[in-house]
Amino acid sequence: MSTIYWHYWKHSASPRCRTAWQRLRLSLLLFSVLISGCAHTPPPENPHNLCDVFADNLDWYQAANTSHQRWGTPIPVMMAIMYHESSFIANARPPRRWYLGFIPGPHRSSAYGYAQAIDGAWADYLREAGRWGAVRDDFSDAIDFIGWYTKKTRQINGVSQNNAQLQYLTYHEGWGGFRRGTYKRKHWLQGVARRVQRKAKQYENQLQHCEASLKTPGFWQNLFG
Predict the structure, then answer these.
(1) Kindly report the CA angle at 159 between 157 and 164, in degrees rounded to 5?
(2) d(Cα 203, Cα 211) in Å, to the nearest integer?
(3) Which of 28, 33, 100, 116 could pair with 85 in a Cys bridge, judged by C-beta atoms 3.0 to 4.6 Å apart?
């Protein structure tokens, strides 16, 4: 509605119509605020330093520590897996298939979100962990999924939750695939798993220098003070 027409309508329309229009405008405004509030958290500027990652996203450490306390997997291992799966991008997806070079097809798998969890594994997590409201593009839900999955890997395949390399191979290939040794034919995947191991060790060393401050209530107060 143009400004001139709005002024004319405002003075000529009935009070009931003006009230209805004002309510509609308010509803549209509230809807736009709600939609903007649903925007995904941008990935950290320095994903190679775990202290910087947690400093950029103040609630991520608390969520990662909660998952660690619940499932027993070290924070650096979970965060290294997540980094190599999605680079901390909330709505990450595998590449699409393209037909004739320009027609978009389906994604190569159902993997989605921070943890790149596929539909079947996510459904198992929701059922077994009792977290029916969890979503894959929420960091706290995704890190809890990784904690759950890595604990199941220890229970099913006997892989230590401290072993980021073998945990990643199982994470990528699935519990059955890891038992069958499907990763042995994938040299590129073995290389990625070694990088996950190095990243987990790097994160572990970094976290030793900042975790005490992350656990201190005053740390959060100083940031907001």
Answers:
(1) 135
(2) 11
(3) 116
